[in-house]
Every structure is written in C-alpha cells, then in structure tokens.
Amino acid sequence: EAIMVGELANRMSEKVADVVKALMQNGIMATQTQTIDADTAELIIEEFGHRVVRVSDSDVEQVIDTVDDKEEDMKPRPPVVTVMGHVDHGKTSVLDAIRNARVTAGEAGGITQHIGAYQVTTESGSVLTFLDTPGHAAFTSMRARGAQVTDIVVLVVAADDAVMPQTVEALNHAKAAGVPMIVAINKCDKPEANPDKVRTDLLQHEVIVEGLSGDVQDVEVSAITGQGLDELLEAIALQAEILELKANPDRAAQGAVIEAQLDVGRGPVATVLVEKGTLRQGDIFVVGEQWGKVRAMENDQGKRVKEAGPSVPVEVLGLNGTPEAGDVLNVVETEAQAREIAEYRQKAAKDKLAAAGAATTLDQLLAKAKADENVKELPILVKADVQGSAEAIIQAMEKIGNEEVRVRVLHSGVGAITETDIGLAEASGAPVIGFNVRANAPARNSANQKGVEIRYYSVIYDLVDDVKAAASGLLSAEV
Ligand code: GDP
Fold first, then answer.
1. Which of 108, 165, 170, 321 has the most CB atoms at less than 10 Å from its CB?
2. How deeply is 108 buried, as exposed, middle or buried, from its count of CB atoms within 10 A (0-12, 13-18, 19+)?
3. Does the C-beta of 91 come closer than 6 Å to ligand 1?
4. How far is residue 470's CA from residue 464's CA, in Å, rounded to a whole number?
5. Are 283 and 262 in contact (CB under 8 A)?
6. What does the pLDDT profile of the chain (479 residues) look like in tens digits?
7. How many A from CA of 179 to the centre of ligand 1?
8. Tr-type G domain location, by residue (predicted)?
9. Interval between CA 89 and ligand 1 midpoint (Å)
10. Is 159 left (phi over 0), alpha (psi -120 to 50) or beta?
C-alpha cells in the first residue's frame, strides 16, 4: 500500500512543501508526485500530529447497523419465493403464468419489467414476492454469498415425468437451507399426466405431501391452462402465515442484490430485494465492494418509487460500480464511510484473488508434472454484463474439451474488466473474455504491459467456436 506525497499532504490538509521537508529530515527524497510506502506515510502522519486510520473488518461492522430489532418494532412482511425443479418441468412457464395472471387482473396496460423479481397479490389479498430467476444455481450461489433471501421454495415437478435428478438436487438444497417447500405438480393438462406418481416418487426422498398424511402442501397445476395457479398462490400465502415472517421497516435498510448489470445509458443498475428497514431515494449505501447513493428506484412495474420496505424488489440507480448477485447492501450514514468500506473490501478481495492466482499457478504446475495423465488445461477468465450470461458461458465452457484438453474458468464475474482481473489472468497465463462488457482504461493499460489477451464477444456461439479452436491448438502445439 503506497500513497503519493501530494495526496498525503492533501489528506492531512498540510502544505506539500512541509511534507517534502519532513520526509527529507527522515532521509527520504521524494517529490510531490512520487509515492512512499504506508509505513513511511504513517511516520509522517504522526509527526504532523494526525491520527492514522486504517480500516479493518471490525470498523466496517461498527458502521453498518447490525443491532437486533426489538420485537415490538417487527411488522409482518411478504414471503420471498423461489421456484426450483428439473429442467423443462415448467419453472419458467409457472413464473410467467403467475406474473401474467397478475398483470391482467391488476392494472390494465401495466408493463412488467424484468428486474429479477416481482410481486403479486393473491385473490385473498396476500402479497407474495417471487424471485424471477428459476433454478437452484441462483439459489445456491446467493446462499454461498451469505444472502439467504428465500423463505419458501416451490418445487415444480412435471406430472408426465415425475421426480428427476434435478428435482432431487432442488429438494436437497431446500432442506439444507431449512426452507419449507410446496410442491407444484405441473403439466396436469396433459393426458398422460400422473400426479400420484409424483407424490409416491417424492415419498422416497422424505417429502411427504398432505394427501399421504405428511405436512408438505401439494397443488396440481398447469402453466398452460392456468389450472390450480390461484390455489398454489393461496398455499404459499398459508405457508407464509405459518412462518410468521416479520421485519423492522423503521431502520437503516439492508438488502440483497438479485441481479446487477452495467446499463449503457444508465450506468450500473442493481435489483435489490430489501430484507429489513426501508430503502429511500437519497440513501447512501455500500453493496459488496461498491458503494452509491440511491438516485432513483423503479419497481417491478417500471414505476418510479421513493421508498421500498421489507421483501420489496426494486431496481436501484446511483451505483459507483456493478455489484454481484448475492452481494449485501447496507445503508450507512456518510459518503466517506461508504467509500472507505468499499475500498477496504476491494483491497481485501484483491489480496484474496492474488492468493488464489498463486494457487492456480501451482495447480497448473502440478497438472503439468502429471504429464502421464495427458490432460491439458486452457484457463480463461470471464466477465459478463449479467449473472445469467456468466453462468451460461461457464456451462458452455465446461462442455468443451475431452480427455486431453479441458477449459477451466478460473474466475467469472459481472461488470467491466478491471486491473484485478488482469492481475489474475497474468498469474495464470489466461486470456480474459469480455461478454458484452469492456475493459476499463487502467485494465487496458495493464493488459498491454503484461501481455494479457483480452477478447470481446457478444454472441456465445462465437466464443465457443474460438475457445474450441484454441483448445485444439493447444493439443496440436504440444503433442
Ligand atoms: P423450465 O426449464 O423448468 O423453466 O421449463 P419451461 O417453463 O421452459 O417449460 C418447458 C416446456 O414445457 C415448454 O415447452 C413449456 O411450454 C412446457 N410446459 C410448461 N408448463 C406446461 C404445462 O403446464 N402444460 C404443458 N402441456 N406444457 C407445459
């Protein structure tokens, strides 16, 4: 950690000439634009009678309000629902059917925006929040990052297919997270539908539906005809009532990022699901390694809102960088605090990446040493505009390769290519792939200096073709 002499003088509100003089007295010749290390800086700061402030984890915790809420301040909040299940069993169709049913029933001409989550009101008046990214990849990655936002899982099982591998995975994830489940037996419009097979299949995985004297609610639905969807919504509302979900709306807001992207016109945009407190226009916040000030918020209907309470998803504008899905947002009091925490976290992440980079190089050395196994690896780094694209690319990359060559995604993330990415790429001899994102200026300079290759793509097929070509090149070059 180093600081420029001019910057140091500036932060202490001292004259540059005085700082240069003090340095000289300590035997260091430095001009205004030269940098000195942190220890020297600390010495000088103390000589001038100032206090040294180095941010630490515990400082971060102090600034962020983690005080437990009093019972009397807790108010009921809507449940947050995630839809999971085997591929093609109708997760997307069920989510779409629920959303569409609501638009026609609600405000005529209302346009639902895709912001990664939406709210519906059931016929009996309960409000439910749905995460609009089906599948357990999103659920687990959010959980892994400490953002467990899901209160209820809807497990979609197709009645013409019954329990499949990803059904089992999904129910295991729900169990591991301790989240209650409701089974939506889908595609009941099909003549070959056999809902009872779904029920008995589930028994083997210790999911016992009410009809078989268990306590898991099950509803027969069809995303195509709309059959049973209202019943499903009421089942969710009932489950939510049992859970007695509550949050304190009158405190500094905390939320989780559901989706984030770099929007050409609007800058970084994040969909945040408020967990507690109320997020308001003008609030200053930290979110993962980024910070910002809420410039504007839009709800799932594309309407401007001035505030958002617990379980409400909103699109937030006014970020200084693009956070990642699963990052936690906390409102803080001052811009200085927000910036300090974000910078501290960026540095911590950089240190961690550097360590990971070193480990990767070791891995590769080991891989090379095991030449008899004959597996060659093509490492790459992926940065994409949205989490969904990043995940799709990782999946596509994992499919390339054979017994001799493998593509390995060292790191993936959302947002512009940064110097940190270039650093890791250099350490591992990997190219950096930008999918609908560019490298910022410092990253471009650093890539030029270090000879790291950056490639831009906007079509996954093009990327797959090029990586395939590179993989076979790797084969022929070294055989
Ligand atoms: P996902 O992969 O779980 O998100 O599944 P999709 O929602 O993409 O659905 C997979 C296929 O099943 C699509 O062709 C849908 O049209 C079809 N599908 C989904 N729900 C139903 C349903 O209730 N009835 C029938 N007949 N087809 C459905």
1. 170
2. exposed
3. yes
4. 10
5. no
6. 677 888 888 777 788 889 999 888 888 888 888 888 877 888 888 888 776 655 555 555 556 666 678 889 999 999 999 999 998 999 999 999 998 886 544 454 455 667 889 999 999 999 999 998 766 666 766 766 666 789 999 999 999 999 998 898 888 888 877 899 999 999 999 999 999 999 999 999 999 999 899 999 999 999 999 999 999 999 999 999 999 999 999 999 999 999 888 888 888 999 999 999 999 999 999 999 999 999 999 999 889 999 999 999 999 999 999 998 888 999 998 898 898 889 888 887 777 666 555 544 444 444 443 443 455 677 888 999 888 888 888 888 888 776 677 788 878 888 889 887 887 787 777 889 999 888 988 899 888 888 888 889 888 888 888 888 777 766 554 43
7. 25
8. 76-244
9. 6
10. alpha
Give me the amino acid identity at 320: N
Q: Can you tell me which residue has the tokens 């990214």?
A: 133
Residue the block writes with tokens 């299940």: 85
Q: Give the Cα separation of 300 and 271 in Å (integer).
A: 10
**Strand extents, DSSP E, 7-126:** 35-37, 75-76, 80-85, 117-121
Distance CA 210, CA 106 (A): 32
Q: What element of type H or E holds 332?
A: strand 328-332
Q: How many CA atoms lie within 13 A of 79 on its CB side?
A: 25
The residue with tokens 């346009």 is 111
ipTM score above 0.95: yes
Mutate to test the pocket of ligand 1, among 82, 83, 88 (most ligand atoms within 8 A of CB): 88
CA of 190 to the centre of ligand 1 (A): 11
Q: Are strands 284-287 and 328-332 parallel, antiparallel or unpaired?
A: antiparallel
Answer whether 228 contacts ligand 1 (Cβ < 6 A). Answer: no
Paired residues of 215 in beta bridges: none
State the Cα–Cα distance between residues 26 and 31, nearest whole angstrom. Answer: 14
Distance CA 291, CA 268 (A): 11
Q: Is 164 in the pocket of ligand 1 (CB under 6 A)?
A: no
Eight-class DSSP state of 35: E
DSSP helix/strand/coil, 127: strand
